[in-house]
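Running this now, will post back.
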Amino acid sequence: MTAALAILAAGASTRLGQDKVLADLGGQPVLAWSLAAAAASGVFSDTVVVAPKASVDRVADAIRRGDYAARVIAGGPTRTASSWAALDALGDAEVIAIHDAARPFVSPALFARAVEAARRSGAAAAGLPLAETVRRADEAGVSLEEVQRDGLWAAQTPQAFRRELLARARTAAGERAYTDDAAAVTALGEKVVMIPGDRRNLKITTHEDLAYARELADKGLAAIAASLSR
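Update: finished.
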């Protein structure tokens, strides 16, 4: 089954206050790290980056400067709408992987595992089983109860799906928006297999997240994939 990748970079970055996918990370834009990992995985025949309409030209210019093999398209008003735009843009690929550009430390191996799991099972999502104690609190922050963590996962991306599943999820969703694509497929009553993610596959949301990511890159604890799409 042929596989294609959508990298979602259409978020507003409101909590960071700047376009996080173009922010510098180890001398490269944040977006470049995911593009390099995707190229190094060797599993994708096509890649699109979904950017805000107002940022398409800037993102495309960054991709050209890095000589990455990816196209840029405009996203929609929600994450779900951006995923559907990617589905339209990725032609006839039989497996569609979707990754958040704000997770720059995704590994080539994780991309490959997600695609292979989707080929076998139809739908797969990276994540980490929860290890910490989980508590529910009220609006004042007062602890109410401890939540059993057995079977609970912290979701990550990439997530990968057979095209026909995503197409059916799109039809069923209508105008509804979901927190991620696995939720849209689960709403169909279809199974999404969880695969082990990576603790380094962090999501950059705040200034503190970006500073931590830069520290990891500066100390050599995270490295951009050496095999670029050139």
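The chain has a mean pLDDT of 93. More later if anyone needs it.
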